[in-house]
Structures are given as structure tokens and as C-alpha cells.
Amino acid sequence: MSTDNVTFTNAAGSEEADDYAGSYDTTEGRVYNVSGGDWGTIAGAPDGEHDRIVVNMGPQHPSTHGVLRLILEIDGETVTEARAGIGYLHTGIEKNMEFRSWVQGVTFVTRMDYLTPMFNEVAYCLAIEKALGITDQIPERASVIRVMMMELNRISSHLVALATGGMELGALTAMEFGFRERELVLDIFEMVTGLRMNSAYIRPGGVAQDLPADGEQKIRDTLPLLRKRLKDTADLLVDNAIWMGRTVDIGYLDLAGCMALGITGPVLRSTGLPHDLRKSQPYCGYENYEFDVITKTSCDVYGRFLIRIEEMEQSLRIVEQALDKLKPGPVMIEDKKIAWPAQLSIGSDGQGNSPEHIKEIMSESMEALIHHFKLVTEGFRVPAGQVYVGIESPKGELGCHIVSSGGTRPYRVHFRDPSFTNLQAVAAMSEGSMISDIIAAVASIDPVMGGVDR
Amino acid sequence: MTDAHHPAVPQGVEELDIIGVRHGAFGAADGGDTSGFGGLVDPIVMPAPAIRPFGGWFDEVSDELELALQAGGLPATEAIEKVVIYKDEITYHVRREHLLAFVTMLRDEPGLRFEMCLGVNGVHYPGETGRELHAVYHFLSITHNRRVRVEVSVADGDAVIPSIVAVYPTCDWHERETWDFFGIVFDGHPALTRIMMPDDWPGHPQRKDYPLGGIPVEFKGGTIPPADQRRSYN
Amino acid sequence: MGLEESLPSGVLLTTVEKFAGYARKGSLWPATFGLACCAIEMMAAGGPRFDIARYGMEVFRASPRQADLMIVAGRVSQKMAPVVRQIYDQMPNPKWVIAMGVCSSSGGMFNNYAIVQGVDHIVPVDIYLPGCPPRPEMLFDAILKLHDKIQDTKIGANRREEVAELEAVALTAPTTLELKGLMR
């Protein structure tokens, strides 16, 4: 069967000559002979010109840290261009908040960077308190509790960073360890706030409710266990040859690059600059705590990983100091026009109630009822103006910019999320390296897409 | 900001930064306000411009800026529209033509050294005719441990601001986001495309004239409209 | 699908259904589809304390081609919606969907322009799991209910009958608005 001048009828019914699928009719139908080894006869193949291969990683991908889309132009295994496509988790939180009262905004804000809900809430509440001018009137106990919750959240966020970073690079045990340790912190959160995540605990004026009676002791008991377990996690990966092989000298971004790209957080501290807002522009009483700012000079993924591990240890130190600083007192501001009305506690029926408060507003004082009602439904008014507050979240500088028009609803709230800015560094960190190095670089930036997209 | 636009401002009062007028005390827009305060008309006034001396390190920074601008051949009164100091924060309202020179000085002058730009974001004031869209920039100086804010106002039909990506590359995505949400075009940006919304999305969602876009929630026998259409009293 | 599709209705078919249901629910492999906060609780469910591996589900398949179950964990934005649908389409039958969390069940607290008000606008959902975020134990409850549902899935002729019945009911079903009665 010669492959020359054979014809076949294509779908349209006309005949064409096909050099590679000569065919002939049989009683059973048409039979095609597909032959190979004829690449030499393919006409017009361009020589030496490389096609651009553009590979799309994500948004659904196990290793891209959430719904991040990485668009890579690759040449073999080397990445020549890397771009990040974001917006797959855009929720319109900032616009939503314009239609809710200031306190209701806390529930929205807490879901932005969902691994660090306490930090989102603190940034927002500090901004509102600054705009109201009540920053000095926040009770000390509330500030101490805020610091404690923030540092515990820093530990849980770094644990997820290590866990997911490890998982993405193949160290699955790190994932299990990280989430096991995180459960200890989440137990504390659940005990104090009622929820494991996204608790809307920190409200303008203080915190929503006080620690339970045995809360302090339970936290104290958890800390040594946490310290030991963190050491176990660290022992798994620090000085581990495979881990170092994947992370040393990967994702290099020096100080100039960081400053140009506006990077803050562990990535900036891995270049050697000890920039930490808790030290340079303290808030919530951070100036009274003793802790070190961890920096490394290697500017690579391994350095950032070490920084996160050591920052967790420093956070444990701060939590211990916070526990020692706890003195009995109110946890909400005294000003009744701003303070969230009820101090909840578990009642005899298992529901959260505040029996004294309910007794007062329902049985004793009509004015108290009206006051409670107006405060909860209408909310307080924040004077017109704009305010910006920046705090040091585990990922970098989390800034909250609020614009008030004097009303009970925010006019505009914008969050300067650290992950959003830090993610711009993906291109700088990974162009020229291999595809697997991008995963390591993104894991070291630790972006949380809820914060990136808001 | 004259009396013709805002009849609530009495005669003879200096120019106030009024961004709108509030009608009624409790925000009920559908006539449901029976409190008696429904007829209240109140201008919404943003903090007034500050006059020298500002106090604290604000004077130092402003002097440096003025000197630097002067040296660059740009009188400070031309570049800076006004300075607002509110709650210990200083905001420079800069004219858009001089924005690039201004931020270059912020970054380069030794006395200023605002190395880190924390991004741009927009605010839409539909009540402030001629200056509806504001782009707000925050800067942090790590060397001097200071923060300033720079604000640029443009009118709705002519919302073009020079891009500062050449000076602060970090503003790349921030400017894209501001374009996406407010429609402010940043002139000179390398790739001004949508970043959060899908690429073919019409409109700019965070403007005040863009609806919240929710759907009514169905219950048995009734619906609750989305948050921007609900009857509300705050 | 196979031979079982052509079995006539009867004892043989019901036995095959039971066996197939048991096999399918025993090793349901989820696709990695964590979007937001619920994804973290889903990962915690895979962690050592809650341990989804006791149901044989710890292998979160990256490729939808190898997955049976899509747990849509988190808020689905307008930009992500076509991706959800594409991943769902890439999954081979039989496949199930759990809408984890209120955001994927109904849009949650985000009733606005950016969020799809319920992933059932895009893919058919088998189990709706409310919570913001639902605890890992709640996720397990949903998975166990799904296991029951899978165990009782009909095959072949029985399935065709069932589908016809469900369709007839659904075509005449009143909307939530028209329903009367108390809260439940």
C-alpha cells in the first residue's frame, strides 16, 4: 500500500491527498494506514525558533497557597517571566462595610486575612479609636488581652505558613505538625472568644468579653507544651539537608529590592533590616514588652523560614509577659456611648447572656434599654476625617485607612494588606529560577489570598 | 463650596472642605423618620486646612519639602494645595501635575527619606463637585520613623493622575486596583489593567454610584433586600 | 457506565447498588478546592486532631480527574466561578459536591457584586454545610451524611426512575417565598 497519491474523503465530502493517513476502502468501511517516522517530510517546520511556552499554575492548584494564579513563561525548566494573577477571592469587603455600622465592620474585616483575624480586627479598631480620639481610654486589660491574642495569632499564622510551605515543597509531616500545634492555639481562641477563627472579638473600645475564670491558667498550661512542640517542628526542618537544598539561596530578594517593592514583614527582615512596627511605632502597649526583632541576612527562603520559627518563640515570650501583666479590670472603654453594651457569660441555660445587663435594661431602666438599642442598631458616630493605622501583622505591615463622614457607617475603609504588596515580589524572586523554586518563593512570601483580594 | 452649592453653610464662613450634605438625623432616606429630626440639613465637613506652625516634626518635614520644591524650581504653593493635620497625621494635598516631582523629593531628600510607599487607594466623594476622585498615598520613613499622607484630587470626567511606579515600583498593583475600583487612570503605568475584577467587568465597583449588587434574600413569605436597599436608620 | 447500567430492576440490582455504594463511599477522594477561611478548617480536618484519613479521604487530589468529591470551601467570587465550573466538569462521574460554609451555600454574609450567591448557581450541590467557618467536626458530619447519601444511590434502571420522579417533583415545587409555615 503506497502512501503516495492516495486520497480520502473528508467530512465535507471532498477528496484530499493525505501523506500520513493513506486509506483504502474495504467491505467493512474505510481503513486508514497511519505511518510514522515521516518527520523529515513535514514541510515548513521552523528551525531554531523557540515557541514561547506559557504555563498557567492555578487558581486551583495544591501548591499555590490559595487561589493564586501564576502565569509563567518557561524555557525548559527555567522560568523566564512570572506574573501573578489575583482577584479570584475578591469579596468586596471594603464596599460592604460602607453599608454597615462601625462595629459590624469588625465581622467583615476579620475575614480578610483569615489566618490573622485578630490583626485585622486590631488594625481596624485602632483606626476607629484614633479617629474617635479614645486611644488613651482603652482599658489596660483590654490592651493586654489584645496583645496576647495577637501574639497567639502570630504563632498560629506562622504555623500555617510553615505547614503549607512544607506541604508545598513535599514535607508533608511539617503540615501535620503545624496543624497539630495550631490546634493548641485554636483551643485557646475558642475558650476566650467562642470561635476558632474569625471571631469578631476585638471591638472598638476594647474586647468583646473578658477571659473566662480559668482562662489565664489554661493559657499558662498550654505554653510549655506549645514551646516543646514548636521545637519539634523546628527540629524537623532546620538544618535538614533536603529542606536546605530546596530553600537556601532560593527566592533571593535583597534590601534594595524589598524597599523598591514595598515589602515588609519577614521578607524584609530576611535582608537584615530590623524593621518591626511593634518596636518603631508601638501600639497597644508593645513598648512595655521585651522581645527581639528577628533578622537574618541571607535574603532567601531559608532565612525567612528561620525568622518565622524564631518569631514564634518571641511571641511565646510576649504571651508570657502579657499573662503576667493581666490585672483585674474592665475590658471595654468606660464611655458608655461607645462601649459595646453587654459583657457576655455563659448562663445556666448554656446560652451566652449577661444577666445583670439584661436585668437592668429589661426591668429597671427604660432609658438603658433605649440606649442599648440605639447603640447596637445605630451605633456610635465617628467624627469626619481620615485616619491611617499600621500594625505589624505576621506577613508585614497591615494598614487600615478609614475615612469617616461623621456618620455611623464608614465612608470608606481601605486595608493596606501586606500580602497584596508582598506578592508583587513573585516576579523579582523567581524569574531565572526553576518552576519548583517559584513554589518555595511564594511559600516564603506567605500570601493569604483573602487579604490580597479582600 | 460656595453658598450656592451648599445652602447649609452660612454667609461669610471661610471655605470649608464640604464633601456632602446630610439630610435627617438618622439616615432614613425613605421618609420613615418619625423622630422629628427628619428635616435636618447638615453639611459634612472634613477637617480644615492647617496653618503654620504645624507643631512637632510636621514643620521640619514641611520646611524640607518647601526647600526641595524650591530647589527644583517649583514653588510650594503651586504644588501643595493645602495641608491638613488631623489626629496627629499630616496630609499634603498635592496637585496632580506636580505629583511625580513631589514624591521623588519625598523619596530622595535626606531630611525626608520616605523610602516606603504603602500604596495608593481611592476615595470617591460624589458631593465634592470638581474634585470627586481622590487618590490617597501613604508613605513611611523608616530612617526617621515618620508617616505622611499625600492626596491628589481629580474631577470625575478627567480622572487622570501621573503614575508614580517609576519612583515607587510598589504602587504597581495598588494603582491597578485603584483603576479597577474607581476609574482613576494612572498615566505612565506600565500595564494598567483590572486586577481584582474579571478583565471584562463593566464599571468601577467601589465608586459611590455603583450599587452594592446584592440580591434579595428569600424567606418564607418575605424577602429582605440587600444592604444598600434596606430600610435603615443609621 | 458499565454492565450494571443494563441490569434490570430487582434484587440483583439492589445488591449491586449496596456494594457499589459501599465501595464509593469508602474511599471518597476530595479535590483540593479550598478557597478561603473554610479551606483552613478543611486543612485542619486533614490535620492530626480531626484526621479525615479515618474516612480514607486524606488524599486531597490535586487533579480533578482523580477526585470524586469537590468540597467547595470558601467564598466563590465572580472571577472564580468559571474555574469552579471547569474543575467540576473535569471530574469524572460519579462525583459529589459539598458546599462548605455559608459563603458557598448561599453567599454568606457577602451579599454583593463580587460573590456568587451560592455555588449551586454553578454546580449541583449534594450537601450544604453552614458555618462561618464550620468546625472540622461539622465537616465530618456533612461527609458522613454524604456517605449515607452515596450508600443509598441508585444505579441503572432504578436511578433513571428516581431521576424522573425527582424532576417531576422539582418542576412543581414552590419557591421559598411561597412556602408557608414556621421557621423550619
Summarize the structure.
With 454 residues, chain A is of the alpha+beta class. Chain A has helices at 93-97, 104-109, 117-132, 140-169, 172-193, 215-237, 241-247, 255-261, 266-269, 277-280, 301-325, 355-364, 366-377, 418-422, 425-430, 435-445, 449-453; strands at 7-9, 15-17, 21-26, 29-34, 53-57, 69-75, 78-85, 202-203, 206-207, 345-346, 352-353, 385-393, 396-404, 410-416.
Structure keywords:
heterotrimer, B: 234 residues, alpha+beta, five-stranded mixed beta sheet, two-stranded antiparallel ribbon, disordered N terminus, C: 184 residues, alpha/beta, 4 strands
Give the helix/strand class of chain A.
alpha+beta
Helix content of chain A: 40-55%
Q: On the 0-100 scale, what is the average pLDDT of chain A?
A: 86
Count of alpha/pi helices of chain A: 17
Task: Please indicate the percent range of residues of chain C in DSSP E strands (runs of 2 or more).
Answer: 5-15%
Structural class assignment of chain C: alpha/beta
Strand percentage of chain A: 15-25%
Low-confidence stretches of chain A: 1-15
**Uncertain residue ranges of chain C:** none
In percent, how helical is the residue content of chain C? 40-55%
Written account of the structure:
The complex is a heterotrimer of chains A (454), B (234) and C (184). Chain A is an alpha+beta fold. Chain A contains 17 helices and 14 strands. In chain A, the strands form 6 sheets. Chain A has a 3-stranded antiparallel β-sheet with strand order 5-6-7. A 3-stranded antiparallel β-sheet of chain A has the order 12-13-14. A two-stranded antiparallel ribbon of chain A has the order 1-2. In chain A, a hairpin with a 2-residue loop joins strand 3 and strand 4. Chain A is elongated, with a radius of gyration of 29 Å. Chain A starts with 6 loop residues before the first strand and ends with a helix. Chain B is of the alpha+beta class and 234 residues long. Helix content of chain B is 18%, strand content 27%. Chain B has a 5-stranded mixed β-sheet. In chain B, strands 1-2 form a two-stranded antiparallel ribbon. The longest helix of chain B has 15 residues, at 57-71. Chain B is globular, with a radius of gyration of 21 Å. Chain B starts with 17 loop residues before the first strand and ends in a 10-residue tail after the last strand. The model of chain B is unreliable at 1-6 (pLDDT under 50). With 184 residues, chain C is α/β, with parallel strands linked by helices. Chain C has helices spanning 11-26, 37-46, 81-90, 102-106, 136-151, 156-172; strands at residues 30-31, 69-73, 96-100, 127-129. Chain C has a 4-stranded parallel β-sheet. Classes of the chains: A alpha+beta (454), B alpha+beta (234), C alpha/beta (184). The interface between B and C is medium-sized, with 20 and 15 residues.
